[in-house]
Specification:
The chain has 21 helices and 43 strands. The protein is of the alpha+beta class. The chain folds into 7 domains: 249 residues, tricorn interacting facor f3 domain (Immunoglobulin-like); 152 residues, von Willebrand factor, type A domain (Rossmann fold), CATH 3.40.50.410; 75 residues, no CATH class; 37 residues, no CATH class; 127 residues, Jelly Rolls (Sandwich); 63 residues, no CATH class; 116 residues, Serine Threonine Protein Phosphatase 5, Tetratricopeptide repeat (Alpha Horseshoe). Strands 1, 2, 3, 5, 6, 10, 13, 15 and 16 form a 9-stranded mixed β-sheet that branches. Strand 41 and strand 42 form a beta hairpin. The protein is globular and about 100 Å long. It starts with 8 loop residues before the first helix and ends with a strand.
Length: 992
């Protein structure tokens, strides 16, 4: 979901806005039908660095100091915001700062204080930045990153926020001013909720042809004064000040100075042209007879001010000449035609129906245009932020011209613009276009930029290159390769040129600076984002070269020389001495590493041979065998999991259990089974214990009359809706009551809670897989893999769902099996920083899939033949969880009374527990080739967490397989949550 629009700095500086969660719902009024024109610039939330509380809710950290530096050059502004946050808690925390920037903007500077000095971030690939950040957090060391999330939102992660201490960060970005009827406007959000200890503010308008018209808001008494270089400066420094009004600077019309030129530090000369292109009033306007209105009713829009969108819809429908049929489709995770109205006529019913919309569920934009009769419409209006997070992202083929309307500061501007332009419509970002201009454009032939020509000199790299609608202002950026040139901008409809304007660009007029260099790079990125996957390599290249954040690059700050060397990240320019030392050290270490490199294949073959040896072992025990523990002490120290990271758990040899008597004979039944290795084992009974949480919200929902339970759910959501557990529990409840559609809607809401949170995505995907909604689950696991390519679980989760999908249907059987084998092969052969021996788990699963894949026509498994051997089992239990830096334990009490778990991982009857993953995610596996008769009790235990965040419940997924790897294999799954250290839960019982 993201496309860009030149939004006001205010929109931009929703800078540290709360991510789109339900928690924002309490603060924003619901839409009304009042005939008030939406403001072109809308009030954003104040800056806030957020951490999660024990209840799962986000909480702001106190803003202690603020320093803002603003430089305005023509229609472009560069803002640098330095903020100091204080942590009042008694433990170190990890904080998230969400930065929704205006359309067309990206973070171009980031710094974090290291020992009292602000150190600049270094551009690396997004994947590497995340891996390095999380690895260093596990060590308890101070990294910080800023990365591009969904839409035009950016996320800054900081660790640690010291207990009773402060951290300082600096963010910079370049943005367009907002065009107004009287000129242009810059706005900086300053409506801080609390008193700020220190506030410093400086605004410079460079080479302004006239004094700024006015300055409003911000600190009292702020005004401009003339300065050198034909600039105007306003500045102030205050202490213990309360500021509740945004700072707004109104400037003269941009057309008086449409061309700006800068000589950048890289030696190149960059230029930008801003043109006021007025749409001809003679453009033909449609007279539609049938209109489709698509209204996004997903959960993320619950707390937003949708009045601008609703007012625009009402104004447009009110001016139509009839008769016109209007069909309204409400979409979220599903889509439904909610009614048909005829206009002109009373619109109250239509508007009220939309106004009363219940905002719930994930966003599946792919459903738009897929309903019956969609192709018969003359015009569509699509109201959405374009952030699709559940199911298909791309809309169905919209055959009618579509005007896409959005008033949110967090949006997928690129996607929204693409949807509109490919249908012959236009994208209306109401943060940048006033209602009058937006209203006039709907249904009218789209006046757009067609291209640019150059004469009398040479210019290169002019962006945008693609055609795009023009509403008010249009900006073009490029590079000069000659002292002077003339460029002509052409406008029109379709391929017909209806207007042109020429501008002369002179190198001699260039000022010194890098603002236009970064602005040009942003324009280049804007073009590339129309096809982000196709252009992914170029997005990375541009981000690295120009030092800016893109969907493929992030900015990272490290603390020590050793960190830069370990992760092969060259220190920033400001650390010149460290750079020289780094270059020499890396050269030395690379030569050593090359000479000492060993083959991973040899290690994996050795591990697999050990596992096959276990599988081929005949475990013997006497009839009616009962286990007697020779040692009363079953646990051992694990380090301080509440504070500093614990050392890796040292494994001790499993003690040989004491026996009542020794015997070399197996039970007679097992002897017979051994004689027939392919014989079907008897079907065991499995009793899964349902997860039945006792929570206040479930008690309230259950107590409500049946017809009012959904309303009670919505009421409880206001209090508990920021935690995924709320949606998991309530979804289960409504499913138990037979309402599967509503249950799925509620469950899909988890996708709306936080942008690009892989843990949440995995929780949702696992639950969908339990419900056999494998297409949805596969799409979400694919997204988790994109977000966490450094974790083997990302590949394994997706592989297992694809294999299950292949087991159950014919269409993509071969492709799904092949993809599953390839993904598991990566888990086996790639290098992972942690999760040692997960390769054996993946090999077991790959070998279970290979015979079925081969039968379906897959030719190759892709591994060394020494790794191919199918290991079937009576029992296989797999546990995984969503929380990093968290230790969960799998325990299985066998019929003999012997308990298998991390420090007693081999049992007399052949039970085996896999390597203990103490630092997050799992999986942990219990395996038993031949089961002893009797009852197996499966338990799970929450041992502890060293996570820096104020964590809530840990969500676990437990899969129980019987007759694993055989034709009668059965799988049963349960999702549960544990919240307290040492808490345990009995998951299931298996009766053989």
């Amino acid at each position: 979901m993201s496309m860009r629009s030149l939004a006001t700095i205010l929109t931009l500086l929703s800078v540290v806005a709360v991510p789109p969660t339900v928690a924002t719902a309490k603060r924003v009024a619901t839409p009304t039908t009042a005939e008030e024109a939406p403001r072109p610039i809308r009030r954003p939330p104040p800056p806030a660095l957020l951490v999660k509380g024990p209840d799962g809710k986000t909480k702001p950290i106190k803003l202690q100091k603020v320093k803002a530096d603003v430089r305005i050059l023509g229609h472009i502004a560069e803002t640098s915001l330095t903020m100091t946050f204080y942590n009042p808690h008694n433990r170190n925390l990890e904080g998230d700062l969400y930065v929704p920037l205006p359309e067309g903007s990206t973070v171009s500077g980031y710094a974090l204080d290291i020992k009292g000095v602000l150190v600049d971030g270094v551009v690396v690939t997004k994947e590497k930045a995340r891996q390095v950040f999380e690895k260093e957090v596990r060590k308890g060391i101070d990294p910080g990153i800023v990365e591009w999330t969904q839409g035009n939102s950016f996320k800054t992660r900081i660790f640690p926020l010291p207990a009773k201490g402060a951290r300082t960060i600096r963010l910079s970005w370049v943005s367009d001013l907002v065009h107004t009827r009287d000129g242009a406007r810059y706005q900086l959000p300053m409506n801080f909720r609390d008193k700020v200890g220190e506030l410093a503010l400086r605004v410079e308008v460079v080479k302004s042809p006239a004094a700024p018209l006015k300055i409003t808001g911000g600190p009292k008494g702020l005004g401009f004064r003339a300065a050198a270089r034909d600039s105007y400066i306003a500045s102030t420094s205050l202490k213990n000040v309360t500021v509740t009004r945004d700072l707004t600077v109104d400037l003269p019309p941009i057309r008086r100075a449409p061309v700006r030129v800068e000589r950048a530090s890289d030696g190149s000369t960059y230029f930008a042209i801003v043109d006021t292109a007025i749409n001809p009033q003679s453009l033909p306007k449609m007279a539609p007879k049938r209109i489709g209105v698509y209204w996004d009713a997903s959960l993320s829009r619950a707390g937003r001010d949708l009045k601008p969108e609703l007012n625009l819809l009402k104004a447009y429908l009110s001016r139509l000449d009839g008769p016109v049929v209007v069909e309204v489709v409400m979409f979220r995770n599903d889509a439904r035609l909610i009614g048909t109205w005829k206009v002109p006529g009373k619109l109250d019913g239509l508007i009220k129906r939309i106004q009363d919309a219940v905002y719930d569920g994930g966003t599946q934009l792919g459903l738009v245009g897929s309903e019956r009769g969609a192709g018969k419409r003359d015009l569509n209006l699509l109201f959405t932020d374009g952030v699709s997070n559940f199911g298909k992202e791309a809309p169905g083929k919209l055959k009618a011209p579509t005007w896409v309307i959005n008033a949110s500061s967090v949006a997928n501007h690129a996607l929204l613009r693409h949807i509109a332009t490919q249908t012959g419509g236009a994208y209306l970002n109401l943060n940048r276009v006033d209602q009058t201009r937006a209203l006039d454009s709907i249904g009218r032939a789209v006046y757009q930029f067609l291209g640019a020509s150059v004469e009398g000199g040479k210019l290169s790299g002019m962006y945008p290159r693609l055609k795009q609608p023009v509403l008010g202002t249009f900006a073009l950026a490029g590079r000069m390769t000659s002292p002077e040139a003339k460029v002509t901008l052409k406008y029109g409809v379709g391929t017909k040129v209806m207007g042109a304007r020429s501008f002369t660009i002179k190198r001699v007029e260039a000022a010194e600076g890098d603002m236009l260099r970064r602005y040009w790079a942003q324009k280049r990125i804007d073009d590339l984002l129309v096809f982000p996957k196709k252009n992914a390599p170029e997005l990375v290249r541009v981000g690295k070269r120009y030092g800016i954040v893109t969907p493929g690059t992030s900015l990272i700050v490290l603390e020590t020389f050793g960190q830069y060397v370990e992760h092969r990240i060259r220190p920033p320019k400001m650390l010149a001495d460290m750079r020289k030392k780094y270059d020499a050290e890396v050269e030395r270490l690379d030569s050593i590493a090359k000479a000492a490199e060993t083959s991973k294949l040899q290690r994996i073959v050795k591990l697999w041979e050990s596992r096959k040896k276990w599988w081929n072992t005949k475990f013997t025990y006497p009839k009616n065998y009962r286990f007697r523990d020779a040692s009363k002490k079953k646990d051992r120290a694990r380090g301080n999991l509440d504070g500093a990271p614990a050392p890796a758990r040292a494994r001790r040899p499993s003690p040989r259990p004491a026996m009542a008597e020794d015997s070399a004979a197996e039970p007679e039944a097992d002897k017979k089974a051994e004689a027939k290795p392919n014989a079907r084992r008897p079907e065991p009974g499995v009793a899964m214990k349902a997860w039945t949480p006792d929570t206040p919200y479930l008690r309230a929902i259950k107590a409500a009359p049946k017809a009012k339970r959904y309303a009670e759910y919505l009421k409880q959501r206001k209090e508990y809706g920021s935690a995924p557990s709320f949606f998991l529990d309530t979804s289960d409840y409504f499913r138990s009551q037979g309402d599967k559609a509503l249950a799925l809607r509620i469950l899909s809401s988890i996708a709306e809670l936080e942008l690009e949170n892989a843990a949440l995505i995995r929780v949702l995907a696992h639950r969908l897989a339990q419900l056999d909604l494998l297409d949805y689950a596969a799409g979400l696991f694919e997204r988790a893999k994109e977000l966490r390519p450094e974790e083997p679980q990302s590949y394994r989760d997706l592989a297992l769902v694809l294999a299950r999908r292949a087991d159950g249907k014919r269409g993509s059987k071969k492709a799904d099996y092949a993809a599953a084998l390839e993904l598991l092969g990566r888990v086996v052969m790639d290098k992972w920083d942690r999760f040692n021996e997960i390769e054996v788990i993946a090999l077991t699963e790959l070998n279970n899939i290979w015979p079925k894949a081969k039968k379906a026509g897959v030719k190759r498994h892709g591994l060394d033949e020494r790794l191919i051997a199918q290991l079937d089992m009576d029992i296989r239990i797999v546990m995984s969880w969503d929380a990093d830096l968290t230790d969960m334990d799998l325990h299985v009490v066998e019929p003999s009374g012997e308990e298998a778990y991390y420090s007693h991982n081999r049992t007399r009857i052949g039970g085996l527990v896999s390597r203990d993953f103490t630092r997050g995610y799992g999986p942990e596996v219990y395996a038993l080739k031949k089961a002893m008769k009797g009852t197996y009790t499966i338990k799970t235990k929450y041992f502890g967490s060293s996570a820096a965040k104020l964590a809530g419940a840990v969500t676990l997924q437990v899969d129980v397989f019987t007759n694993f790897g055989r034709s009668n294999e059965k799988r049963r799954s349960v999702t549960l949550r544990l919240t307290k250290k040492k808490e345990s839960f009995t998951v299931a019982e298996i009766e053989f």
